[in-house]
Amino acid sequence: MTQYLFLFTIGPVQSFIEQARKTHDLKAGSDLLSHLIDSTMKQLDSQCSIEFIFPNESISSKPNRFFAKVESDNIQKIGEYAKSSVINEFETIACKLLSELKLPEPGDFKSQINDLLYANWAALPLEKDNYAERYAEIEKYLGAIKNVRQFHKMEEEGRKCSLCGERNVLFYRGKKRRYVPNDAVSLNELSPKYVMDGEGLCAVCFTKRSFSIKNSYPSVAEISLMDTLDKLDSTLKNEYKGLFGTHFDEELYFESNLTEEYFKKYCYPDEKLESAKDHLKKIKNDAKNKNIGFPTYYAVIMFDGDSMGKWLSGEYLKEKSQLMEFHKKLTKKLGNFSKKVEEITQKPKGKLVYAGGDDALAFINLNHLLPVIKEVRGNFPKFEEIDQVSDKKTSSVSCGICISHYKTQLSETLRWARKMEKEAKKIDRKNAFAIAVLKRSGETRETVYKWEYNSKSTVQIMEELIHALKNDFSDTFIKNLSMEFGWLKTESMKPDFEPLIKTEMKRLIRRSCMMRKKENESKEEFEDRKKDAVDKLYEYLESIYSESKSFENFISFLDIAVFIKREINKCK
User: Do residue 284 and residue 302 come from a single domain?
Assistant: First the structure.
């Protein structure tokens, strides 16, 4: 038998996962792709002699690719078997869901299912000392295969899917069919969690949404309220949920949604409206007594390891001949990191979508955002601790963050989180994070910084600023600084005004200090304490101002801190 290096990948990935109207759609898409890869790996393991190198088999959220060592006399047969396993498994899942729900199969159902996924593979013979060369070659070959992807022409006329906007509607809910095919299936008898009133789904998006419908996943409203709900009286919460049966969304904790229009849209009985209002008043009284509120914003975070292609290629190794051993150790570290991310992003902090090794996506409650991203960053594996790595290289990870209102379209929030991740990677030598805030008013604020400057954590500085604003300082110094120097937009203009800006910033910080003299504290002691607080805050802000790519980026950093402070204060 010949030994081969075997590389396998499926797609599309990003569009399949992120074409989502609900958090459940996002999670289901991720789980479905992970299941297809996991299923294919298990099928191959039962059919041939195979040793998986990447990913670690213990990772629950498998990425969309794997590579392994395979022994076979017919590698073509192995590759085609893996490819057909993915396609067949997806069709089997889709048909099984129809059967479980006792639904008829629309005419274009299987054609939509079978035309979605593509699977690519490449294999090269392995000899004793050519693993590194073969790995470099196989990546190039697979890239070339992806560039000439075949596709099937589909001619469809009619209403397009509410989720992807690409394929025809085959499943719908509502009294009006509205340009759907004659054999389209009405889901009026099913729970609205499958299809909402007026919504229509194609075969792919219906399968994706139905795949893990029994496994509840928090909505964005629940993520926003997660810290608050953790502190509320459980009896009051259960009584309130009981009014709505199994179909309950945490949006109902917001008074603005207790309307006849909202109840009609989500198929809640009208006679429950007044009772719901009375129950919500009791919950609000409990919250008031505990001094907690109902925040409306949450965060999406996307982590991605920096320069992973170079790490995997062995570019940072002392000897490329050690690449296979390095891959095995790297895979183990990434597997441990994925498990750690899952532990970190538990309620009431948030909820993980996936952690597939070097990348992760999660929804985070705003009250826990900064501690979570700091902890995830701190747990990213240090590849330099592996013996084979050159002494001059260290691993790093970048993060994109979008803070959004629960009523903002999820697809827009995800798009901004992805955009921020790319902005973080544009920073010199990467190792950065970028935050965007999408305010309900339509205003957007963006900032990007490295994780550390001169051994000072930038996230820690934002936490210190928020703490100062909550206790001892007014945010007026930020407003005044912005008004006075807001016309400075470009980096090239900053150096000439830097001494002036720093002097004015310290003066404004001093003026915004709201500290009060304590009982039995002398005037001198109070002034010293006040001076220390002003100096400390100025030192923090001066350090990141000096490292900012522009004055606008610095002001956005301050504004985002103010925004987070206001939102998390609602929970206090």
Answer: no
Residue 151 is predicted with a pLDDT of 58
CA 55/CA 330 separation, integer angstroms = 10
* 305 backbone dihedrals φ, ψ, rounded to 5°: -60, 140
DSSP H helix total and E strand total for the chain: 19, 15
- Looking at 345-448, list the stretches that DSSP marks H as alpha helix, in order from N- to C-terminal side: 369-379, 410-426
How many other C-beta atoms lie within 10 A of the C-beta of residue 411?
15
Same domain, 404 and 503: no
Least Cα distance to 355 among 369, 339, 344 occurs for 339
SS3 269: coil
Amino acid letter for position 80: E
* Interval 176-199: pLDDT, tens: 666 777 888 999 888 888 888 888
Query: β-strand 297-305 against 359-365: which pairing, if any?
Result: antiparallel
Query: Where is the domain boundary, 147, 179, 196?
Result: 147
Instruction: Identify whether the C-beta of residue 505 lies closer than 8 Å to the C-beta of residue 477.
Output: yes
* 207, 188 contact by CB (below 8 A): no
How many domains is the chain built from?
Answer: 4
Residue ranges making up the domain that contains 351: 293-450
Q: Is the pTM of this model over 0.70?
A: yes
